[in-house]
Each structure stands twice: as C-alpha cells, then as structure tokens.
Write a structure and sequence with these properties.
The complex is a heterodimer of chains A (138) and B (110). Chain A is an alpha+beta fold. Chain A is 20% helix and 41% strand. The termini of chain A are far apart. Chain B has helices at 2-36, 50-61, 84-95, and strands at 67-72, 75-83, 101-104, 107-109. Classes of the chains: A alpha+beta (138), B alpha/beta (110). Chains A and B meet through β1, α3 and β3 of A and α2, α3 and β3 of B.
Chain lengths: 138, 110
Amino acid sequence: MALQQKYQELINAAKTSEVHNLQVREQNNVLYIDGEASSGAVKDNLWNIYNKIDPDFRAGDLVLNVNVKAASGSKAKVVTKESNLNIRKGPGTDQPIVGKAAHNDIVTVLNQTSQQWWLIKTDSGAEGYAYSQYLTPA
Amino acid sequence: MKKTIIHLTLLVSLIGGMTLPSCKNKKADTNTNTTTVDTTNTAPVVIANDDELTKGVNDATKDFPGVTASVNNGEVTLTGTIKRDRLQTLMQSINSLHPKKVNNNLTIQP
C-alpha cells in the first residue's frame, strides 16, 4: 500500500485521464500500472508525473506499462528524433530492412502485432514492421 | 391469544421483509464501490520470461549505443550512459516488455 501512496498522483491521473483497462497492482514491493492510453499525450503526461515523483526513475519500484492503442487502418506519425524509421520484414531488429519512413511521415497502421512492433504501410507502398516507440497516432 | 401470535408472526415477517431489501441495497452499493476501485484486481502480474525480455531489450536499446541492458530472472538492469532527454523514451520501451523490475544504473548526462 505504501507504493500506492507514493505514486498516488500518478494513479489518480491515470484514473481521470483516458486510460482503458487500467490495472494497479502491487507485487513483491513493485507497483505495476497497466493500461491503454487514448493518445500519446496522455501517456507522456503519466510519464512526466512518474519522473516528478521518482526523478530519473531510480527507485526501481514501479513498472509503468501504459501503451497507446492505434486502430487497424488508422494513421500514425513517424516520431523519430530526426532519422528515418526502419521498416522490417518481421517484428525484431534482427529482421532485414524492407523500407524506410521519413521523420514526420504519416503512415497507415495495419496491425498492432505487439506493444513493441506495429505492421505499417507507407504512402509509397513500403509495408513491414516498425518499432512502435517511433510512432504516435496521428 | 392465538390471534396475537399470528399477528406477531405477521409483524415479524413484515419487518423482516422490509429490512431484507435494505440489506440487499447496502450489499449492492458495496459491490459497486469495489468494482470501480482498480486496486482490488488481484490477478497476478504476468512477467515475461528472460528470453522474451532479452529479445525485447535488444530491440529497445538498439538506438541507444551507450546503453547496455542485462536480464536476470525478470529484472532488467540498465548500465552505461544516456542523455537525460532520451531517458524517458528508453524507460517507456523497457517498461512495456513486462519486466519484473527495472534497475536504472545509467549515468545520466545533461
């Protein structure tokens, strides 16, 4: 319960913002917060609160797993720092690169294969798996 | 006398009948409260196995050349150096892999 008190502001924010299937659980002195955020902004807001309560995420007492859900057929923006986003044959960095999407490009999400890897298609027709960290619903 | 007993029985059953629904309401209220509190979910947290985690951390740290990640019994330990403005991005990726715990031992550069 002590951890839920420590992260109360974060839990409250998750409850009041659009986070679906929210679960807050404590197990072996680690707090687990899981859910699906309606947008990248909601997710980032939660992470900013996390960073405020536990600066630089040093305590190792929280696993915050709130991911952004993108519907099949929806558009997503490439949010790499500045470089191109690799599109791969399969879901893994060990898979060959089959195409690239430019920084700030808008692509179509075909399928959220996993939380980490989304199957996407670019306007120029390149299709494959991209790391979801570099995509945000547009 | 017999009449009084019958009356009494009627009265008791009437009171009983009246109190029961209110008890039911009370119970229903409690149930509604508990279902809205997410913390009552007691399903155990599923932790990814070390092979899945190792593959996941390799993908997540690929674009972070100064960072090394090791996996042991569900715990992910991050060592090396990282720029502060990139830390949150990396932590978001690692936290989505279903680790048991994330140990951030990174040296953070401004």
